[in-house]
Request: fold
Amino acid sequence: MKLVHTSDWHVGRTLYGEDLAAAHRQFFSFLTELVREEKVQAVMVSGDIFDRAIPSLESLEIVSQALAELTKLTAVILTPGNHDSAERLGFLAPYVHGNLYLRTSLTDITRPVEIAAAGETLRVWGLPYLNPDMVRTSLYDGALPAEEEAAAGGDGEDSLPRLPRSHEAVVAAAMRRVGKAQRHLPPVDHTMVMAHAFAVGGAASDSERDITVGTVQSVPLQLSERYGQIDPESSSGLAAPDYLALGHLHVPQKLHTDRSAGRYSGSPIAFSFSECHTPKSVVLLDTAAADLDPQLVPTPVFRPVGRIKDSFENLLTSPRYEDFTSYWLEITVTDPQRPAHLVTKLKRRFPKALAILHETSRASFEEQHRSLRANRYRPAALAKDFFKQARVGKELTESETRLVEEIYEQVREES
Reply:
């Protein structure tokens, strides 16, 4: 049978304020046609269906229409990501008829989807995005080493026992549940796991939302194939999944472990200028081929995204930039002094430019980028860097730092 793995649709997202609804509609038309032409038996969507927990009416319409078309042709297995509201995503089910399988809650972890076609049976385990702060009590199973068991206890005598505050702990607990459920099911031809997480070794772009909880945001990929090694009974005799369909990172990439292969399909659309050299795609799998033969099928480009950097004069006159006049662009001007009418003149030549920057000096530019890279996943630290620069080197006080962190946590919870 043939399968498609995709993720990180982020319907409702904009690029520097530019509406991407038309790009999403183009992608869904492409995906529907691919499913039809390849006679695909299942589409696995590993999270971040929407860009916001409360999507707009237009976003709901785009996704519900796409799922209605796809489920006329094939099975669609859908799990929520860190941008989605799992509860609200579950409301899609009554409005989409056909082969839609939503795995949005903790109880769904032990309810695999089974697809039978072409004389084969495929079993797919769908893990929703697991926020440690939300699920480490519910997923607690007591299967921890003694030292971790002590560290995982509640905050007081009346507190409930809970898992350590990390993505690794909650994913491991989820996979232990999968392993226990797998032991009581008959063997099948192929087994796959869908997960939305930052796997160790993955390469990020500038457009993923920070998911750091505690001090570590990534999880070892081996957790998704060993069904939890802490409880030997749960993993004894179980083969590793044939494929790990991963979501969260927007750059297509493969990750290998000793026992199975995992892949990020990447986002089907570029959501930041850091992805301008990253071809966008979905993954096509064939269970009849050796190692499933994963193929990256390029998705259509609604409008190219690019970065250009040069002197003001060259940007305005050089013929080598002629091809960029229709791009969504990030433009960096390198003149020592800011040219007069910089934005007006550049927009005249590059009407689709979305970001126009002036690189004041090499030293300060590199320092800012080092800070951005170091703090990419810690917006609170990035905010502190900003206030230090805005206040001419004056550091935030301890009380000010706590206030920044409290506001950041509050915004994350409400977003």
